[in-house]
Amino acid sequence: MTPRMTKFVLALSAPALALVAAFLITSLVLAAAGDPVLDVWSQILSMPERRNVANIIDNATVLYLSGLAAAIGFRMNLFNIGVDGQYRVAAFTAAVVAGEAWLPGYLNTALAVVCAMAVGALWAGIAGILRATRGVSEVISTIMLNAIATALVAYLLRKAAVRVEGSNAIGTKKIPESSRIPNISIGDGPGQEIYGFVILAVVAGFLYWFVLNKTVFGFDLRATGRSTTAATASGIKITRMVVFAMLISGAVAGLVGLPILFGDSYQYGSTFQSGLGFAGIAIALLGRNHPIGVAIGALLFAFLNEQSNPLQILVGVSPDIVAITQGVIVLAVVISYEVVRRTGVRLEQQAVARALEHERTDREGVPA
Amino acid sequence: MSVPATVTGVTTEAVPKSRRIPWWAFLAAVPGVLLLLAVLELVTGANDLASSGTLMATFIATTPIMLAGLGGLWSERAGVVNIGLEGMMILGTYGAGYFGYHYGAWAAVVGAIGMGMLGGLLHAIATVIFGVDHIISGVAINIIALGAVQYLASLTFVGLPGGGSTQSPKIPDVPTITFDGLSDKLLEIEKDDTFFVSQVAALLRALCTNLSFLVIISFLLLVVTWYVLWRTSFGLRLRSCGESPAAAESLGVHVLRYKFVAVLVSGGLAGLGGGVLAMVASSNYRDGQTGGRGYIGLAAMIFGNWRPGGLLMGSGLFGYTETLGLRRGGESVRALLLAAAILAIAAALLQIYRGSRVTGAVMLGMGVLLGVTYFLIDEVPGDFTRMTPYVITLVVLAFASQRLRMPAADGQVYRKGSAG
Fold first, then answer.
1. What's this model's pTM, rounded to 2 decimal places?
2. Same domain, A215 and A325
């Protein structure tokens, strides 16, 4: 095999290994608990219907944005655990701004999106500034900011909310119809529509790739992530990069809740989907921070979420089993990348040793 | 954390010896804090700041946070960052629920520790053996633990009396100690409302009324941890793995084995913390019971500069603010605002006197802001009360992070034979 070929095979074998491991461990857990292993897998791995496909794409859109937000931090060795808080603060802001409808039509939408990104960036920026100027670990500060966000949004929601008709739930004012983002139809039945926001998610993915790989800023960011000493030596201001990376990561995190807001719920209420941030971290790891890898990871997680939904009704198994699968996938992916990396290093060392040996025998003409 | 602080150009220097707080200061701090609270009650008219009820609840609220922090202390002293504490605590709450219902109170304790250790085992295998980044492994463990517990709960608790997919049946509690006569006497003294005396009586009463064995055991574990890690050769070796694993290995310490053990103990302690939540703070396992206390424990440990005494102070502070949030908190937290304002202004003046003008000015601004807030509002809204501990952590980290010194090799992956 050529070295390039070896590298390719190794790169693909890691996720494959991880999926197999996750499959085996989940099966073991199911078997140990006395649940029907085969029935569970045949439901999860069955062909999703058109309606389910729409749900999977919707869910994946949201997870993808969350994954991108985490990935930006990862590229600079920053752990933005705070995507969770950032997206909730941002989605709430967007809901209030769009609900008030100061501007007509899509201008209103654009204003809300910009506000959401700004607030998300601001929330993440606190952690960035604390890291850059005071040396506070962003892991701890973003965890604190998550908790603060929860309480703050709960408080503001109570202030800004109107009661949802016919229930005890409260929410912000509904976004006017003219500012909603229309769904895209992928079939002709009911429920066969996906968020129009999907397009914006794809654009975000492209921009992520472009900025990181084709601009000076992206190079600086990646260089800082690889080696701070080398980056400093080449004139990159590390503290500034830390703040910028957190700001951008937060701005993308600000987008996470918006597909749901503009395509489905049209308001921010006490029941707004939570926990998307941590899933994003897992997905970024799974996709190795590559825009396409993250997309595959998001689709995989969304697929597992959707397909496990009817498990309780069909085979009497709690759908929470897929959370175990997802967690194991993350852990297994990282472990197998490490194992594969070590194997790669060993193979390379052997190849170099062989080449040197050849050179020596060629020169001296005596086989060792 | 995973990245050394030098990344940002901010260097953390060792605390000079004169700054190290002597152990007796912690004992002296108890009457000091009580005096402060007494003065606050006198000035602001809030009367629940240091009542025996508040203090009893504080002990119970502090214990799980402290245990999680202790777990963090063990693993980080051996050089393994443990974000997975939250997950291990979650496993502990389930362990207490399952084993408590089926086999009784002490089995619940063992079950909680055992389940936590399972989480620790997973973290140890991933980080110590496979060299996975510690934070990634921790995040994965939190995801797995939450899913596993929800799955197991709907598997094992559905159909039991009072049980369901989100909660276990009622579980028995470990015994508590009460000295009846003494407790009543002290209550009388507390009711007299004598300045400072009543607060001391409240503290003593909290210590001898309905004090759970688990709380006592947990505080003993803190002392044991201090003794084992700082006064035995085992502890010295374990800490050397967190400071300089290569040096430790060159001296014959089996680094990976020590790290492995430390992470296992860490999981057990966090699991016990979850058990306390299920048994003492509540009476059954409930979904979402930990509410991020694993993270808070970690913050308490960092707040306490990776030392047991500081950890106790940090978790006490969190436990106290959490308690105030639950008990007519608005008024009490408002009273604390005044104290915080005065402390901040005093600290600001000290900073300016020492020559750091910017820090001083920022602190002064915050102090004045707090003071103005105190006079403008009658009660702090519940949501803000809930956010208090987190804001305090952020502020403390912002101002004190340069004084904190984490183990030198904390968060770094070590591979056997790196000593050469």
1. 0.87
2. no
Q: Is the dihedral of CA A120, A121, A126, A127 positive or negative?
A: positive
> Which residues between 113 and 172 in chain B have a beta carbon less than 8 angstroms from any beta carbon of chain A?
122, 126, 130-133, 135-137, 139-148, 150-152, 154-155, 165
Residues A308 and A332 in one domain: no
The residue of chain A with its CA nearest to that of B396 is A136
Q: Which among B63, B59, B121, B131 is positioned nearest to B87, based on CA atoms?
A: B121
Which residues from A are below 8 Å from B1, CB to CB? 79, 137, 139-140
Best mutation target among B2, B122, B137, B144 (most A Cβ atoms within 10 Å) is B144
Distance CA A177, CA A161 (A): 19
Answer whether B139 sits within 8 Å of A330, measured CB to CB.
Answer: yes
B chain contacts of residue A237, beta-carbon cutoff 8 Å: none
If one compares B101 and B347, the residue with the highest pLDDT of the two is B101
Domain span at residue A197 reads 53-316
Would A153 be classed as within a structural domain?
yes
Q: How near does any CA of chain A get to the CA of B225, in Å?
A: 24
Among the partner residues A158, A281, A331, nearest to B137 by beta-carbon distance: A331
d(CA B348, CA B343): 8
Instruction: Assess whether A308 and A326 both reside in one domain.
Output: no
CB neighbour list of residue B185: distance below 8 Å, 6 or more residues apart: none
Q: Tens digit of pLDDT per residue, chain A (368 long)?
A: 577 787 778 777 888 888 898 899 999 989 988 888 888 898 888 888 888 888 999 999 999 999 999 999 999 888 888 899 999 999 999 999 998 888 888 898 999 999 999 999 999 999 999 999 888 888 889 988 998 998 899 889 888 777 666 666 778 888 888 888 888 887 777 777 888 888 989 999 999 999 999 999 999 999 998 888 999 998 899 899 999 999 999 999 999 999 998 888 888 887 788 778 888 988 998 888 899 999 999 999 999 999 988 888 888 888 888 888 888 888 888 888 888 888 888 888 898 999 998 888 888 766 54
DSSP A148-211: HHHHHHHHHHHHH-EEPTTSS-EEPPPPPGGGSPPPEESSSSTT-EE-THHHHHHHHHHHHHHH
Q: How far is B377 from chain A (nearest CA, A)?
A: 16
For residue B387, give how far its alpha carbon lies from the nearest alpha carbon of chain A (Å). Answer: 5
A363 found inside a domain: yes
Smallest Cβ distance to B394: which of A81, A141, A331?
Answer: A141
Tokens describing residue B317: 């502070």
Whether A6 maps to a domain, the answer reads yes
Query: Does A116 reside within a domain?
Result: yes
Residue A242 contacts B where some CB pair is shorter than 8 Å: yes
- Give the ipTM of the model, two decimals please: 0.84
Q: Is B402 in Cβ contact with A134 (below 8 Å)?
A: yes
Contacts of A328 in chain B (CB under 8 A): 140, 144
Element (H, E) at A353: helix A321-364
Judge if A252 and A115 occupy the same domain.
Answer: yes
Q: Is B152 exposed, middle or buried (0-12, 13-18, 19+ CB in 10 A)?
A: buried
Please indicate whether, in this complex, the C-beta atoms of B152 and A321 are within 8 angstroms of each other: no
| Tally of structural domains, chain A | 2
Domains of chain B: 5-14+26-400 (1.10.3470)
CB contact under 8 A, B147 and A324: yes
For A215, the token pair is 């601009």
Whether residue A266 is found in the same domain as residue A329: no
Same domain, A85 and A184: yes
**Which one is predicted more confidently, A162 or B259?**
B259
- Same-domain pairing of A20 and A74: no
**Domain harbouring A163, CATH code:** 1.10.3470
Distance CA B260, CA B238 (A): 10
What's the alpha-carbon Rg for chain A, to the nearest Å? 24
Is residue A233 within 8 angstroms of chain B, CB to CB? no
Are A118 and A202 in the same domain? yes
- In chain A, % helix, strand, coil (3-state, to 5) comes to 75, 0, 20
